[in-house]
Amino acid sequence: MRNFDAIIAMAADHKGGPDALEKILAETPALEPIVIAATPDDRILAAMTRRIFYAGFSAKVVDAKWEAFEAAFEMFDPHACAFMTDDRFDVLMQDHGIVRNGAKIKSVQVNAKFVLDLASAHGSAARFFAEWPAADYVGLLDLLKKRASRLGGESAMRFLRSIGKPAFITSPDVVAALIREGVLERAPSSKLDFAAIQDAFNQWSNQSARNLTEISRILAMSVGPSGHIKDR
Length: 232
Known about the structure:
single chain; mainly alpha; Endonuclease III, domain 1; 15 helices; 66% helix; elongated
């Protein structure tokens, strides 16, 4: 595993130099914890829901319908969504303004309860996510997989990045870079694999003072000119 300065140089070479690389990195900024913590809980639930509905669907379709999603789910008020009645669920299943997927609609109710639980224990769900240490990012992924609905793997990673939380994404290009660096032998599939990824990211963060999002994107760009697209 080489020093991260060498990997940054590889990525910069693919993107036309250090300035061009930094411009691309600025497209997906990670926010300061104080900014993340100020996010209202309805926006946390909305971000979860958007990411869940993106999975397996066209993001453009979901985005085009998002105003209808907001109306259908009462602006993602966690209390309203957590106590969704069967009748309300049936109404949503007939709503042509949204994507009518029963399992994903049901996940909104489960995740609303999760958001309320976090708010009860930590003051707000956003504060919980903001304060979780980057050095144990994989622990946060594990928690989301266990306690949230349909927020495992890449969906969880992309949700966290969407709220500004520094987050790596195990996209094909990132995995290819991790294999090249000797961190992995193949695509990650076990807790040991993710522990190895976390350890590598922690080392690279200490070397470079870069956050997880930046390291992830730089790794993706280090594999070739199109790498940044798959890790946005």
